[in-house]
From TrEMBL:
Family affiliation: Belongs to the SSRP1 family.
DNA-binding region(s) from the entry: 529-597
GO CC annotation: FACT complex; nucleolus
InterPro entries: HMG_box_dom (IPR009071), HMG_box_dom_sf (IPR036910), PH-like_dom_sf (IPR011993), RTT106/SPT16-like_middle_dom (IPR013719), RTT106/SSRP1_HistChap/FACT (IPR050454), SSRP1-like_PH1 (IPR048993), SSRP1/POB3 (IPR000969), SSRP1/POB3_N (IPR035417)
Task performed by this protein: Component of the FACT complex, a general chromatin factor that acts to reorganize nucleosomes. The FACT complex is involved in multiple processes that require DNA as a template such as mRNA elongation, DNA replication and DNA repair. During transcription elongation the FACT complex acts as a histone chaperone that both destabilizes and restores nucleosomal structure.
Annotated Acidic residues bias: 466-477
Biological process according to GO: DNA repair; DNA replication; regulation of chromatin organization
Name by which UniProt lists this protein: FACT complex subunit SSRP1
Keyword list, A-Z: Chromosome, DNA damage, DNA repair, DNA replication, DNA-binding, Nucleus, Transcription, Transcription regulation
Residue ranges constituting the HMG box domain according to the UniProt record: 529-597
Pfam families with a match to the protein in the record: HMG_box, PH1_SSRP1-like, POB3_N, Rttp106-like_middle, SSrecog, SSRP1_C
Organism ancestry: Eukaryota, Metazoa, Chordata, Craniata, Vertebrata
The organism of origin for this protein: Oncorhynchus mykiss (Rainbow trout)
Gene designation: ssrp1a
Gene Ontology molecular function, alphabetical: DNA binding; histone binding; nucleosome binding
Length: 682
């Protein structure tokens, strides 16, 4: 058998609500840690006196009693755990684990026994039920009757409000009243707060953020009394879970936070945190209402009768000594603002401060939130919904609750990411910061889109295709400002006939302008090297079969979607491997393309482009010369400029004679004339 025994999902009853946690038996002690609150019960092995194994509603349970009078009950064990625990107790604690059955007769009369902090109702020496007296809030007496009222727990679905006991009258010769004796036993152990005696010290008019207002704080040995103009609160020290002392962002104010379980109530409002607000400049001289010997004996040097210093230091020092809990302060985290150990953000539309601590996060102040690292499932850095100058920090707990802290300045991103990464919290979008070179960006590059990648690749190919066809042909635009041609008389038939051939060529040019066969031209070049694939496409080709095998019946579109999600989860080292493969493929493609172009392949070689540019320049230059020679009356449109066959008078005459010999009315009707920019059919 090992040195320890550990059990998960063990339940501990707290004011009518079952809270699960982890129980560990070791040679030195018994430790139970609640999963909900993180509160730890530590029972030294030397103090264990009685151990009882019982059948309860959640399987089997253990009841442990200590020599100091405390009783601890833990439920949720299996029947097979009895032998292991019994042997462990015998070997290490020298305590016998005894089995005891509960009474299930259902009788409502029996014997009430007070055993330490428990009231047990027994029938025939078998326990029917037990009442923790610490859960009793009020005890009232009547004629032969005692009424017990209980503290309520907001987490329990059903609450027990009160129990009434009928106490029969005793013999006449007995002077003691059995009802009062019963009530006195209950009150001695019950959690009924009564302000008896003087307060240890008093702090006047302290500013409280939750609950809001100014309160006088009276410090008693067993509880804390908040006295305000409207409300009074009495807080037992046993309900204090943690203490926090947090500096404000401006370094001139301090927050003292007291975590409470169960919370204090104001109507239907529950306050799980008590937040006191101080200024660092406030000073106080404090004198305790106790003698020096009593202070030394009770607090063992933690306090002295006369103290002086900052107000927040006095309050925190007194609370630490009376509650006997450590004060949590911010750790090594440093925000973007020099000296600031917090981050300005918003939670539920309320602005506040988020403090990254050594073991969790705490948000101050409305509403206060404390998240321990051990209860956090994952965190996420999300883009701000209103502006790109900020981002959101999302925290998801293991219970499924999500807390979103929004409007965080983007300058805080690097510091917060490094802090979360150092605490080894699971980050959903871990590759996001690394891809941005430690700088938060508002682009969409953090989310991989397979469809977008494919569109980008096709766009690059299309751009190259357009570049290869930029100078394939001359444009055939028709100049509406063209005047009559200077190649003949302005209105005779010879001039009209001389324009027949240029008109036909202009028609052909217009057909070229449609550019329909571009894609066909690009696709015909099958000898050109194929473009390289991106790192994602290389990874997708190698992983496609695996995705199909892991997801039978998946469609093509779902494969792309699934691959995009998987690509996000790939680590930085794996992505660098595929990036290297993509870079090698790109270099190979560039080398092959260079050799292909040098060998004369492709439709967009430099030599062809250069020759086409020269032809275009020469033709445009010839048109300008003709325009200068002919003046305004001799201006020719591009159709006439591009037709060099009819540029001389001799050629026009030959064309005229040939046309008269062959001409027909139908052919003449198709001749295109240009008169002062207007088109008409002759």
């Amino acid at each position: 058998m090992g040195d320890t025994l550990e059990f998960n999902e063990i339940y501990h009853e707290s004011k009518g609500s079952w809270n699960d946690g982890r129980l560990r038996f070791s040679k030195q002690n018994v430790v139970y840690k609640s999963s909900k609150t993180g509160k730890v019960d530590n029972i030294p092995a030397a103090e264990l006196s009685v151990a009882t194994w019982r059948r309860v509603c959640l399987g089997h349970g253990i009841k442990l009693a200590t020599s100091s009078g405390h009783v601890y009950k833990y439920d949720g064990f299996r029947d097979t755990d009895y032998e292991r625990i019994s042997e462990f107790f015998k070997a290490n604690y020298k305590v016998e684990l005894t089995e005891k059955d509960m009474c299930v007769k259902g009788w409502n009369w029996g014997t009430a026994k007070f055993s330490g902090p428990l009231l047990s109702f027994d029938v025939n020496d078998s326990s029917v039920f037990e009442i923790p007296l610490a859960s009793v809030s009020q005890c009232a007496t009547g004629k032969n009757e005692v009424t017990l009222e209980f503290h309520q727990n907001d987490d329990s679905e059903v609450s027990l409000m009160e129990v009434r006991f009928y106490v029969p009258p005793g013999p006449a010769d007995e002077g003691a009243d059995p009802v009062e004796a019963f009530a006195q036993n209950v009150r001695s152990k019950a959690d009924v707060i009564q302000a008896t005696g003087d307060a240890v010290c008093v702090f006047k008019e302290l500013q409280c953020l939750t609950p809001r207002g100014r309160y006088d704080i009276l410090i008693y040995p067993a509880f804390l009394h908040l006295h305000g103009k409207t409300f009074d609160y009495k807080i037992p020290y046993t309900t204090v879970l943690r203490l926090f002392l947090l500096p404000s962002k401006d370094q001139r104010q301090m927050f003292f936070v007291i975590s409470l379980d169960p919370p204090i109530k104001q109507g239907q409002t529950r306050y799980h945190f008590l937040i006191l607000h101080f200024s660092k400049e406030e000073e106080l001289k404090l004198t305790l209402n106790m003698s020096e010997e009593e202070v030394e004996k009770r607090y063992e040097g933690k306090l002295s009768k006369n103290m002086s210093g900052s107000l927040y230091e006095m309050v925190s020092r007194v609370m630490k000594a009376l509650v006997n809990r450590k004060i949590t302060v911010p750790g090594n985290f440093q925000g973007n603002t020099p000296g600031a150990q917090c981050i300005t953000c918003s939670y539920k539309a309320q602005s506040g401060l988020l403090y990254p601590l050594e073991r969790g996060f705490i948000y101050v102040h409305k509403p206060p939130v404390h998240l321990r690292f051990e209860e956090i499932s994952s965190v996420n850095f999300a883009r701000g919904t209103t502006t790109t100058r900020s981002f959101d920090f999302e925290v998801e707990t293991k219970q499924g609750n999500q807390f979103t802290f929004s409007s965080i300045e983007r300058e805080e991103y690097g510091k917060l990411f490094d802090f979360v990464n150092a605490k080894k919290l699971h980050i959903k979008n871990r590759g996001f910061k690394e891809a941005k070179n430690n700088e938060y960006s508002d682009s969409d590059d953090d989310q991989h889109d397979a469809y977008l990648e494919r569109m980008k690749a096709e766009g690059k190919i299309r751009e190259e295709g357009d570049g290869s066809n930029d100078s394939d042909e001359e444009t055939g635009e028709y100049d509406s400002n063209a005047s009559e041609s200077d190649s003949g008389s302005g209105g005779d038939g010879s001039g009209d006939e001389g324009k027949k051939k240029p008109a036909k060529k202009a028609k052909v040019v217009k057909e070229k302008r449609e550019r329909k066969p571009r894609k066909g031209k690009k696709q015909k070049d099958t000898n050109a090297p194929k473009r390289p694939m991106s790192s994602y496409m290389l990874w997708l080709n190698s992983s496609r079969e695996r995705i199909k095998s892991e997801n039978p019946g998946i469609s093509i579109t779902e494969i792309s979607k699934k691959a995009g999600e998987m690509w996000k989860q790939i680590g930085k080292e794996d992505k660098e491997e595929w990036d290297g493969k993509a870079e090698e493929a790109k270099k190979t493609y560039e080398k092959a393309m260079k050799e292909y172009r040098e060998s004369g392949g492709g439709s967009s070689t430099p030599a062809k482009k250069e020759s086409k540019k020269e032809d275009k320049k020469r033709k445009s230059g010839g048109g300008e010369k003709e325009k200068e020679q002919g003046g305004n009356d001799s201006f020719k449109s591009r159709e006439f400029i591009s037709s060099e066959e009819s540029s001389s008078d001799g050629e026009r005459k030959k064309a005229k004679k040939a046309k008269k010999a062959k001409g027909t009315p139908q052919s003449r009707d198709k001749v295109l004339h240009c008169h002062h920019g207007n088109n008409r059919m002759d």
